[in-house]
Design goal:
The protein has about 190 residues and is of the alpha/beta class. About 40% of the residues lie in helices and about 25% in strands. The structure holds glycinamide ribonucleotide.
């Protein structure tokens, strides 16, 4: 059985989709949700779904390895970042080599990097005059949004699109593809 941990910083709608998708899966289960923000709605979602959550702060994350210890205690074998906004520290990259993936709400390598999250990404995409936008699922390395890309999907930007409408379309694409892509990646690791 693969045990997934999901890292999220905000609403956690992807975390919920992924958790529900694998609820009855024969080989894969979401076992833990980790969060850096005590106000994040994802913590409520975790409670509602009956999934344990672990809240940590910046100091703990970057100056100790307690998060790794927690992941090991839960026998986690794979990490999914779903709306998680902090850079992943070295001890986690070493603890989970090739076993951490992230979703980004645009077509990388454009529109990524530090500070590029949520609405800021969609504003930048609209300002740039790009014709299409979408989602990128990629391995995580020591730099923001630069790991190898696993999967992308896109849609055409309409003249009346706003950051809000793009966020909605991006979320729809994320819900449609992210759980299945995780499943495919894990199948190769069984
Ligand atoms: C998602 O659209 C995800 O791609 C994005 O944050 C949103 C989280 O939504 N991630 C980033 O911007 C990372 N740079 P959710 O909390 O409802 O799943």
């Amino acid at each position: 059985m693969h045990h997934i941990a999901i890292f999220a910083s905000g609403s956690g709608s992807n975390a919920q989709q992924i958790t529900e998708y694998f609820r009855t899966h024969p080989d894969i289960r979401v076992r833990l949700i980790l969060c850096n923000n005590p106000e994040a709605y994802v913590l409520k979602r975790a409670d509602n779904m009956g999934i344990p959550s672990y809240l940590f702060n910046r100091e703990e994350f970057y100056t100790s390895e307690t998060v790794l210890k927690v992941l090991q205690d839960y026998e986690i074998s794979f990490l999914v970042l779903a709306g998680f906004l902090w850079l992943v520290p070295d001890y986690l990259l070493k603890g989970y080599p090739g076993r951490i993936i992230n979703i980004h709400p645009a077509l990388l390598p454009k529109f990524g990097g530090k500070g590029m999250y949520g609405e800021k990404v969609h504003q930048a995409v609209i300002r740039s005059g790009e014709k299409r936008t979408g989602i990128s699922i990629h391995y995580v390395n020591e730099r923001y949004d630069e790991g190898d890309i696993i999967f992308q999907a896109s849609f055409k930007i309409m003249p009346d699109d706003t950051p809000e409408s793009i966020a909605e379309k991006v979320h729809a694409l994320e819900y449609r593809h992210f759980p299945g892509v995780i499943e495919e990646v894990l199948k190769k690791k069984i």
